[in-house]
Amino acid sequence: MKKKLALLLVAVLTVAIALTACGNSAIEPKDAANIAVNTIMFDKDTDKYKDTFGTSATALQKNNKELFTKRLASSLKIKDGSMDNKISDLYDAYIKRAKTVAKYTTKVTNDDKKKPTVKISVNGLDMAATQDERLADFKAKVKADPSIEKDVKKTAQAVLDGYQKSVAKAKASKKSVQIALNLEANEDQWKIKDDEAFANKLYRAFFTGTAQ
Fold this sequence. Notes:
Layout: H1 2-21, H2 29-42, H3 46-53, H4 58-75, H5 84-101, E1 103-110, E2 117-123, H6 131-144, H7 152-168, E3 177-186, E4 189-192, H8 195-208
Antiparallel strand pairs: 1-2, 2-3, 3-4
Helix pairs in contact: 2-3, 4-5, 4-8, 5-7, 6-7
InterPro entries: DUF5105 (IPR031343)
Keywords: Signal
């Protein structure tokens, strides 16, 4: 009888331990935010991202690159896709420079267990500080070849060249941009609310040092 009771107690203890292990083991919101930024922006912590959010960030990264390309091509009035590769190269240059000089910090502003909010403060690339140099560079090109101003594709190429040069030496903005990361509990993982909108705000902050 005592032996059976002892075995029963062991069984109960084993089940209790197992249930404890199966509880909500999601990482802290602040850590989740750091993983989100590192993966979406710089393709780091990709395994951690999948463990944390249950999916990869590939779709978000692809969507942002395509959106960047589409918007810039439209602003340059290029509709035939002929500049897509060059714009893609510029996007990669932004990522590389942001990875080198941009900074960010994270702080939990709402510690709700199921729907926490983390404030991400980003000191992105200060592209406004390079605007005069880009304009001077463009004017110099037009002076050397007046046809640039009359040819849409030549204009686009000159503008992209100017951005490539300025991005390569851009410094981090002294002013930070605030982005809210709203998380939602998903069993033992997290879900990013409005993840595409969040990723887009993240890229803008890192690329321009502004919220626009």
